[in-house]
């Protein structure tokens, strides 16, 4: 379960105040809202990449508000995947484990298992500039899974993909979440995407979180 209580984020002239959000365990939550409303800032706060001024963040009833990002058991896929240009696909997946000084044989085992799961074994020695859009997303997903997270955070992971790849990666996300029994927070501007993946849909508007009832999903306007 994800719980964010009375979160306050100050970012220059922009701020979010008294934000409250609860996502049940193994739910696939989608967060929508206009540009500049603070969706990414809120996700970065959850992941430990942005400081909160006040409030508390819990994962499965554990207060993680002041924990380092790599200790939060959260896998994060930023908007463009953020692959390192100088690392091969295999090295990308291994990167978080290397930072944690995991034993090399354990790293190799994890990389092999995730590459097989994501069907990218053939590109493990390839670099980002030679990968297709779908392959890049699969590598980014594998890297997010490398630390064995309890929560996955996706920031518009499908926005740059064409329709065929969009559907392919969308199906992969749904499969992974079910297989790994993960809790998800997924940012998107697409109601179609939200409807196909989300078990819960939220909207961030004017500094408030609004829960969009399931029966209203088809008619709701952002």
Automatic annotation (TrEMBL):
Pfam families: ABC_tran. The keyword Methyltransferase does not apply. SMART domains: AAA (SM00382). Gene3D superfamilies: P-loop containing nucleotide triphosphate hydrolases. Residues 1-222 form the ABC transporter domain. InterPro entries: AAA+_ATPase, ABC_SmlMolc_Importer, ABC_transporter-like_ATP-bd, ABC_transporter-like_CS, P-loop_NTPase. Coiled coil: none annotated. It comes from the Bacteria. Signal peptide: none annotated. Keywords: ATP-binding, Nucleotide-binding, Sugar transport, Transport. The keyword Lyase does not apply. One of its GO terms (molecular function) is ATP hydrolysis activity. This is Putative multiple sugar transport protein. It comes from Lentisphaera araneosa HTCC2155.
